[in-house]
Automatic annotation (TrEMBL):
Pfam name, any one: HTH_18
Name the UniProt record assigns to this protein: Helix-turn-helix domain-containing protein
Function: Regulatory protein of the TOL plasmid xyl operons. XylS activates the xylXYZLTEGFJQKIH operon required for the degradation of toluene, m-xylene and p-xylene.
First-listed, main subcellular location of the protein, grouped into a coarse class: cytoplasm
UniProt cross-references to PANTHER family, sorted A to Z: HTH-TYPE TRANSCRIPTIONAL ACTIVATOR RHAS-RELATED, TRANSCRIPTIONAL ACTIVATOR FEAR
């Protein structure tokens, strides 16, 4: 595999995958939100995201963004092409990181993105130059702050009877929907909608146990438009019907 430099446009659509090569994503315009191994970050102009071999990552851009992407071939290519920079480049590609470009590095990225990629030789040598110039650049610190689950729970509890959107939780966390989705999966193994559904059903279980409310009213209080849909959800979540769950919990 040869190195490839490509211009890519990202949208609000979430991308979540890994690939069998390392990758560097250089910001050109807009903001690209990343989630890499449970840590969030964003790439703007003058910024780079380092994605090592086989690292699972998610990204999305709420308002659209453009990036220059360098797909780095295997370690053999690094050793053959980077000369005395090879060891430093290998270390750079070992860990996920965000890197801030200086003015000269930014000029090189912009020049390559402006049309030089049409020449295969320039594109190949440009890939080597980009990788070599990053050696010695300190990575930026990525925030590892966990999502505000307390605020999420309070919002879900308060509005459980009404339609709830993932965008509501994203606003509470002050991140994009794409990043929120990736953070939920990384931190608790659930999608945001799974989390909302589970919270609602736990509320319903409490009402079944601690109140004499009819099952239909409990269903409405936790956002289900019909008792049958509520019963099906309870069966999937707890393995029994709402009535059976009420009897089971009250015997304990």
């Amino acid at each position: 595999m040869r190195p490839t430099l490509t211009l890519r446009h990202y949208t609000h659509d979430l991308i979540a995958h890994s690939h069998d090569h390392a990758q560097l994503v250089f910001g050109l315009a807009g903001r690209l939100d990343f989630e890499v191994e449970g840590i969030g970050g964003e790439i703007c102009p003058q910024g780079v995201m380092v994605l090592p071999f086989s690292t699972h990552h998610s990204c999305g851009s709420p308002r659209g963004s453009q990036c220059l992407v360098l797909d780095v071939p295997d370690e053999q290519w690094v050793m053959q092409s980077l000369g005395e920079h090879a060891d430093a480049s290998r270390r750079l590609l070992d860990q996920p990181a965000r890197v801030k470009l200086d003015a000269r590095q930014g000029q090189l990225v912009n020049w390559l993105a402006s049309g030089a990629l049409d020449d295969p030789l320039i594109a190949q040598q440009g890939a080597v130059l980009l990788l070599a110039t990053l050696n010695g650049q300190p990575p930026a610190q990525a925030s590892a702050r966990r999502l505000p689950y307390g605020a999420f729970n309070a919002h879900i509890d308060q509005h459980a009877a009404y339609p709830l959107q993932v965008a509501d939780l994203a606003r509470l966390a002050d991140i994009s929907v794409a990043r929120l989705h990736a953070r939920f999966v990384a931190e608790c193994g659930l999608t945001p909608m799974d989390y909302i559904r589970t919270r609602r059903l736990q509320m319903a279980r409490g009402l079944l146990r601690d109140s004499l409310l009819p099952i239909g009213e409990i269903a409405a209080r936790v956002g289900y438009g019909s008792q049958s849909a509520f019963a099906a959800a309870v069966l999937r979540e707890f393995g029994c019907s709402p009535g059976a769950l009420r009897r089971l919990d009250n015997r304990r």
